[in-house]
Fold each of these.
Amino acid sequence: MSAKTASKKPGSKGASSEAALDIGINDEERARIVEGLSRLLADTYTLYLKTHNFHWNVKGPMFNTLHLMFETQYNELALAVDLIAERIRALGYPAPGTYSEFARLTCIPEPEGVPHAEEMIVQLVEGQEAVVRTARNLFPVVDAARDEPSADLLTQRMQVHEKTAWMLRSLLES
Ligand SMILES: [Fe+2]
């Protein structure tokens, strides 16, 4: 693959960036799906990094609970990014994989400094919900294109993030 084809963006003219691919989804729909999956990948990776950061830096009386809970979450996110990136590859496009691309594509802000433990939980709830919204916004596009594998992936990711958001949110309730 040449550097020229590798750098092609989803949605650019002549959508397919590699060898001809005919899986029953037209080029325009495939480009739109990849655009959305790239945002989902960027959100998931950014949330992964934030969760790992908080695993390292959490302090206070809830240290043990949060340190371990964040570890479970970042491990799950690390596996999820692989599934999302490889779905993008199966759709015929390069997967974004640099910090600058992720920063451009994600809607999840970086934390400023080291937040208090409770603020970490708030930020992770917001992050989990943001990923759910990104996945849900893409769902009608994959549904219309009859892209069942992407629909299945989105459904699984929404399920995990909604459940994790509930678990984190529960820590804030009395
Ligand atoms: Fe650790």
Amino acid sequence: MDLSQVKDISQVRAERRPFPVHVLDGMESAACFFCAGFLGRNDAIYVHDAGIRDVLAVDHNPEKMALMEPLYPGWTFVRGDAYGVRASLDRKFDIVIADPQQDQMDRALVDLPIWQNLANKVLLLGVNNGEEPMALGAAEVMERTTGSWWAVFPQST
Ligand SMILES: C[S@@+](CC[C@H](N)C(=O)[O-])C[C@H]1O[C@@H](n2cnc3c(N)ncnc32)[C@H](O)[C@@H]1O
């Protein structure tokens, strides 16, 4: 996908990657950290298509954020360091999705309690193995590409 040629969200939808769609059931707000790498083909497209309107999207790549923002009208886009933005937030979201690149996936699990603290209902983390998340309390994992999984952490109420 030539990102600079993407003018319509249907082009992102055509490139979707595996995602545990059921985790979006009943969600009214979402935060997508590390959102912009492929304009949302891993996660944001599913949040969009689930009809969630209260969405925060965070990435530090200004060029990709500029391409992504028109595709997701009504969302709040914050350009900056995900860890800094995360620390500055004074609200929670029904679902928090963090999709770091491979070299930051170890940190995703180290930071698990911090991510969980932002989520009312579900935390969805991109991780680099399927076993450690289950040992840490994930309800399920889904392999999406070779070497990367989604790990679903439901929040206890
Ligand atoms: C795996 S890609 C995300 C793909 C995205 N979820 C999608 O579906 O298009 C990882 C993203 O993390 C962003 N990134 C890496 N380090 C970051 C940081 N410290 N703060 C914010 N964004 C960061 C990169 O710019 C890249 O867009």
